[in-house]
Amino acid sequence: MKKSLKLIAIAASLTLITGVAVAPSAQAAKIKLCLALDTGGVDDRSFNQGAWAGAQASAGFADAEYLAAASSADFAPNIKAFVDKKCQLIIGVGFAISSEIVKSAKANPKIAYAVVDDAGADCDANFNCKPVKNVKGLTFQTDEAAFLAGYLSAGMTKTGKVATYGGAPYPSVTIFMDGYVRGVDYYNKVKGKKVSVLGWNTTSKTGSFVGNFSDQNAALTLSKGFEQQGADIILPVGGSLGAPYAAANEKTKKALTIWVDTDGYGLLPAGKSTLLTTVVKEIGASIKSVAKDVADKKFTGASYVGTLKNKGVSLAPYHDLSSRVPGQLKLEVRKIRDQIIAGTLKI
After folding, report:
1. Contact between residue 268 and residue 286 where contact means Cβ atoms under 8 Å apart
2. Which structural domain range is residue 120 located in?
């Protein structure tokens, strides 16, 4: 009898030990997710802010932190700081930081990396590129959503002129501008109209740029210049660069603004009543996705590409201006979106 009780006690203690051991695997420790931001600040009402929101949305399986960059000189030190902190996933936010992400990834093959708006490949001076196993590119076909915005703008303009400009001539910026111009061109083709776009030429790849993503005064000057040339809808591709002009138009009512990256309606302190729509890039969703992969030990360097089809890009609601958008135009924009998703309309 005593022997039986002893065996029962041993069995019970083993069950208790097993239970204690199993619990952590059912609730795995959170990974350390670290964001190396682009310039512009975490509250840029656009790119960085969307990335940080995605990191915060990963709270169930990741502890997130970020480091801001005052200039590109901060990129490498910020990434090095994250390596020293033993971050398990380091994400560079923006095309400009990609080369530093790749350098760090090659030196630290056991750390998972990702970079927003770039493939994260290792390229030489002649642009011969090869993938890096521990770097995941988070890219977006924003030209698809921008095409919709261009068609919408062409259907909404009263002057027959619209405009676009960028912060800097990065591919992740000009892809918006390309899509926007092509959307206007498509409207002209199907409607027999001649709406013109100021600020970007898709053939010569030349246009207007602020030179950075922080000089709102320079952006305001560009916007007003386009307004004086007759443009009544303007798409600035550069984070919060368009905020002052959107705010000014609440009084002047001279032009409408289209935002980029994150739906500007809930972010702008002033000017949202003049916001026609936003060309949305679901940066946050892509960051949450790669963080989950790392937490689940399913991370690979295979690229993520956001499209209209997988909801990685979209056109935001018209919000306050919805009543001003003709019902027929809304239907046409939705139809074009469906055609792009189905692959029957090539942009």
Report:
1. no
2. 31-140
